[in-house]
Write a structure and sequence with these properties.
This protein is of the alpha/beta class. It folds into two domains: 70 residues, 434 Repressor (Amino-terminal Domain) (Orthogonal Bundle), CATH 1.10.260.40; 145 residues, 2-Layer Sandwich (Endonuclease, Chain A), CATH 3.30.870.10. It is built from twelve helices and six strands. The chain has a six-stranded mixed β-sheet with strand order 3-2-1-4-5-6, with helices on both faces. Helix 1 runs antiparallel to helix 5 and helix 7 runs antiparallel to helix 8. It is globular, with a radius of gyration of 20 Å. Pfam families: DUF5753 (PF19054), HTH_31 (PF13560).
Length: 275
């Protein structure tokens, strides 16, 4: 039986999953057996153990009752719920690391896979200033940016298509030097053999099909999946009925957006205005 290795140092979600698996193994239970006692499926238990799903308070309390661990897991689940990663994102990350194709559309900020460390740090520092997250959560997010980018350095290389709303380029983040380095990072990204970079200009107006960020993955088995998020939660979807219309809209977005050459020219022009 394939058994995924767990790294409890990766995140609070991973630490919870590792602890849950250890407690289950001590009792010699399968995931299905624990799920039956908790009131969920073995598949759900597997998703929590491997960090693809965050444990809810109800799940943790049910696991405590089944395992006879008092409120141990419920207390540990609080750290997961207070983590920097919004609900739904850990499940997405598990698929991003193996995707054959990644199609990104972002509004307002450079997407994490294209951020420099300095840009990511400036972005999260602002979130700390607004008391939206803690300094520890900010550090976790910045470190995650690096891990996500490193995970894509593999063979065969995934195709990465990134369409940036013009607001991503015009919103200053950090010092002018930080923005200049970020522009340079985008130009380097555009030169890679497995990437496409386009800008969706404001002039598109109502022809822009999305108002929120979306990511469409093509998995190794050629299935497609969708990740979208609001300010408070993310949603990962694999049902083709929902994903295929978004993929079609993404293709339309690419048709309306600036070409890569035009997008690169825009970034060069912005750099000229950067001290």
């Amino acid at each position: 039986m394939n058994r995924k290795d767990l790294n409890p140092d990766e995140s609070p979600t991973a630490r919870f999953g590792e602890r849950l698996r250890a407690l289950r193994d001590e009792r010699g239970w399968t995931q299905d057996e624990l799920g039956e006692r908790v009131g969920c499926s073995g598949t759900h238990v597997s998703a929590v153990e491997t960090g693809r799903r965050s444990p809810t308070r109800r799940f943790a309390a049910g696991a405590d009752k089944a395992l006879g661990t008092g409120d141990l897991l419920e207390r540990h689940s609080r750290a997961v719920r207070h983590t920097a990663l919004i609900e739904g994102f850990p499940e997405y990350l598990a698929h991003e690391t193996r995707a054959a194709e990644i199609r990104l559309y972002e509004v307002g900020v450079i997407p994490g896979l294209l951020q420099t460390s300095a840009y990511a740090s400036a972005l999260e520092a602002d979130a700390v200033r607004r008391e939206a997250i803690t300094p520890e959560q900010a550090q976790e997010r910045v470190q995650l940016v690096g891990r996500r980018q490193a995970a894509l350095d593999r063979s065969p290389s995934p195709l990465i298509i990134s369409v940036l709303d013009e607001s991503c380029l015009l919103r200053p983040m950090g010092t002018p030097d930080v923005m200049d380095a970020q522009y340079q990072r985008l130009l380097e990204f555009a030169e890679l053999p497995n990437t496409v970079l386009q800008v969706a200009p404001f002039s598109m107006g109502a022809r822009r099909p999305f108002s929120l960020p979306v990511t469409v993955l093509t998995l190794p088995e050629r299935a497609v999946a969708l990740y979208a998020e609001s300010a408070h939660r993310g949603h990962f979807e694999r049902e083709s009925t929902f994903v295929l219309p978004i993929l079609m809209a993404y293709h339309q977005l690419q048709t309306e957006a600036l070409s890569q050459a035009e997008s690169v020219a825009m970034i060069h022009q912005l750099r000229k205005g950067t001290p």
